[in-house]
Amino acid sequence: MTTTVLPESPGVAVAPVSRDPYIDNVKGLLIVLVVLGHLVGQTVGSSPGGRTIYTFIYLCHMPAFVLLSGMLSATELTGRRAASLIRDLLAPYVVFQLLYMGFYTVMDKPMPWTIDELLSPIYHLWFLPALFIWRMLAPLFAQLRGAVVIAVVVSLSAGAATVLGHALSLDRVAGMLPFFVLGVWLGRGRLARRPSPRVRLTATAVLIAAAPVAYLVASRLPSLWLYWNRGYQRLGVEVTEGVLIRLGLMAVGLAMTWAIMMLAPRRQTFLTGWGANSIYPYLLHVFVVMAFAWSPLNNQVDNLPALLVLVAAAVALVWITASRPVVWALRPLVSPPVGWLLRDVVPAKKPQSTTGTSQS
User: Fold this and answer.
1) Distance between CA atoms of residues 350 and 92, nearest Å
2) What pLDDT does 38 receive?
3) Domain range spanning residue 117?
4) What does the pLDDT look like over 327-351, one tens digit per residue?
5) Strand-pair partners of 19
6) Does any domain span residue 351?
């Protein structure tokens, strides 16, 4: 895949490395959907069409993030990559789990400060330990024949299991495994293929068709189905019905993910800088979401203008939390210094060339 050096967007901090604007655009779009979904989720009882909008977002935004993560994951686990997983996923998880526990306490929503609570991700933080586990498993699934089928079986079986719990997101690790493994199977190279106008038109039609599907899902299924962390029994269905529903949600999620990836721009846009720093909006936005949820304002989104203001607020929140000052100020929290915890990793020496020499 051809990569380009990403110029800095005004007011947006961009990592000073070679990046692919297309990938960052996809991530930027998805992080806007994440923030919007969490905000709309606090108003589904009052906002016009709120439940359908919420369902539309949840049908695709995390399946897309998980699949993209699989496509970008290394299929070899070296010492250096293992260290990066600790630095980029586990360390910020611990930091922000503690920060959110403190935030809940300050907001008079206390929770027990126990190891069990530390290992049970708060709200959106489930993705960090889940991604850590998925990426640790990526080399295994890269070698397995029929890995995608195996992952689907694991996900469907997880719905019937009772041993998986919330700790370290094991319920979602199993439930959303097919999206990640499919991403590993597809690989990063698939992202380099530019869609034709006909494909983009089809992708547009898929997203349009997903709107009535979201309405039907919202009217017939509890929102808990969209979280991929509940067993069929807890959702009130038998195993056979649960398997069919989960398969249907997988199909819809994959179709919408494909459409989003086909429609995402490939040149640098305002989304590019947001995607390059998507970890900052992801980790930070729930402070605002929870404050909004615990305030009287969440009951005021009961008409279309108020809903549009909420959408604008979601975009503004992403823009602010991905901005240069925020990234500069909060980098020690989002990327905490953990060098003291890690052993020095010595890169493997390149084999010496044997051209023109004899070997005994």
Assistant:
1) 33
2) 96
3) 4-341
4) 999 999 998 888 777 776 555 554 4
5) 4
6) no
If one counts every other C-beta atom within 10 angstroms of the C-beta of residue 305, the result is 8
Within a domain: residue 352? no
| Spatial CA neighbour of 43 closest among 53, 57, 34 | 53
Residue 213: both structure tokens together: 């599907």
> Taken in order 131, 43, 257, 234, is the CA torsion positive or negative?
positive
What is the C-alpha radius of gyration for the chain, rounded to an integer number of angstroms? 21
Distance CA 277, CA 284 (A): 12
Which residue stretches of 72-196 are H helix?
79-85, 91-106, 115-118, 127-143, 147-158, 170-175, 177-186
Position 341 scores a pLDDT of: 76
Number of domains the chain contains: 1
Contact between 320 and 65 under an 8 Å Cβ cutoff? The reply is no
Length of the chain equals 360
Identify which has the larger pLDDT, 360 or 219.
219
Q: What is the rounded CA–CA span in Å between residue 52 and residue 319?
A: 25
336, two tokens:
């905490």
